Amino acid sequence: MWSRYVALGDSFTEGLMDVTDDSGRHRGWADRLAGHLAMRDPDFQYANLAIRGRTAPQVVGEQVPAALRLRPDLVTLAVGINDALRPRYDVNAAATHVENAARSLRAQGTDVVLFAFGDPSRKSRVMGRVRERILQANAATRAIAERYGCHIVDFWGCAVFDADELWDDDRLHLSPEGHRLASLAVLETLGLGDDAWRTPVSRDEPSLPQRAWGDTRWAAQHLAPWVVRRIRGRSSGDGITPKRPVLAPVALPAGMRRPGDAPTM
To answer: The pTM is what?
Structure first.
């Protein structure tokens, strides 16, 4: 069992759009996963170095060396979406960064979890323009996972994530329920859960006018600001620091106890 977990990546792993914790930072699937793991080990510790907006070279160049110094026995590395959204995208260059990270972490004896991301065309025609890029990145990630003996969480084709309630209004970040299911997906990959999270949520499809209005509102509120940041050379992660830069125990929700904890009176 793992006792030293470090999460690496971008906004997905930082936990954007999940509920906030006592520090005012978003919680996210990695925090939720850490809570599950902490229930199994009284000595469990967790760090989260992920920062929104980071690309593969930034994550591997900044976060991986810091993670190696922490000597974790488990690392999750979720990266690549921000690269695929850039006008100029080199899948081979991005994959090389992921491979270098996997090689370094595995050489230290760390178990590594990688991610194959979902089909963006299932949710958005605009995001669907990068579908082929995601396909290429996923193929490279699967090959890296096989070569270095990494676990892989594969979201491609998961119908459950078609549900609007699993996504924030920006259509890029998961909602709290989406983060909860993502944590369960990682648990299944680690052999600590089942595939019940994959069950699609029944929902009513919006009408074409509703969809068109939603697309217009999304473009004004979320797409336009993103484009402006790109033009200005800015990132949503500018000035942001990791929310959990060092390994530390995980505070469990009220009523939950670690193994060996004395019952409360």
So the answer is: 0.85
